[in-house]
Amino acid sequence: MATVGTTGVRAPVWRGGFGRLWSAAVISRFGDALRTTALPLLAVRLTDDPVVIASVTACSYLPWLLFGLLGGALADRVDQRRAMWAVDTARALLVAVFALAVGLGHASVPLLLALAFLLTALQTLFDNASTALLPSLVDAEALGGANARLMTGQQLAGGLLAGPVVPLLLGIGAAVPFAADAVTYLLAAALVASLRVRPPEREPRPAGSTLRAEIGDGLRHLWRDRVLRPVCLATLLCNIGMGALIATLVLHVTRWLHAGDAGFAAAMTVYALGSLAGGLLAQRVAHRVGRARSLLLAGTVQTASLLLMGAVQHLAALFAGMLLLGSMGMVWNVNQTTLMQQRSPAVMVGRISSAFRTASTSGAPTGALLGGAAAQAFGLNAPALLAALLFAFAVVALIPAGRADVPVGVPRDGAATARVAP
To answer: How far apart are CA 26 and CA 14, in angstroms?
Structure first.
């Protein structure tokens, strides 16, 4: 697939497969944001028990811990394009049935819990297949630019555009956001199904090979890679820190800073704007300092931003910190994902991707518990300071990866990646 150059950075062209994959990802993220915003609002209409309401969120984490590694192994075994559109079609049917139940007045807490669990269980296959498919659609030199465009588009759709739409849709009817989500899944499935991609050439699996053994192969490859191992550890530490911050941010803003609901909404908007800016910066930073060292830079800036938020009791400090946190978070995400795709053999991308995601997911709820305990024991600004400490540890963990930072454009085992069919 052709690429174009911008200030020395290779970028993918929009026509053909990448444009359709980008459109599918953005449309799907918009629908996801509608649903995830409307789901807790529906939950509070059904119950006022905070434990039950929190369980809806917990059900969105649990499948990653149970099935994340399995989803990665399956993504490496199957045709990734077919897996993605089949999963999106199944998710569309699930959400459509849920929307019908809500419209008919049959919504219930068990139904909410079941929906959250099943959608995330399917997501474990979809997300890993998507990560493994992208290198099949763009040249190795353009992979970073493709990730930046995908993540920026998703942030724009989910972080800025969907939020204001939800109250309008809920005004029409409680079922409308979920019906809209089902439509976005179908549109995304149609776009992915239209891709013409040859699957990667895979060697026949040894006789008796099992999913458990293949998962083990992926984990061993991740552990032995001198760059990916510290990056994975650093990502886990950062996600524990972000879990601590996000779980208590509403208390930080409304009680410690006395900024009210409007201040909280403004802080989240600033974070989203920072993420969009980071999407534009990610490739340029990597081009100047290297991918692994761009993570070192992003982690260092994020550590400083968290210290600012936790130490200075002023709304301006919060906004500055959230802006830097969002922008450098996007720089981190783009370059971490690209580094993982570039350093993974084509036949193992799904399994290595799932290890990253499973680590990230396990970090978030752990961090949330730590953040709540820190806020209760040391004050409402303590979670931000705890997050800063964890980010500092992550930066230290990254030092070996920064020393070994060398460009990697193709899988190191020589496995051929797929290409768009003529």
So the answer is: 14
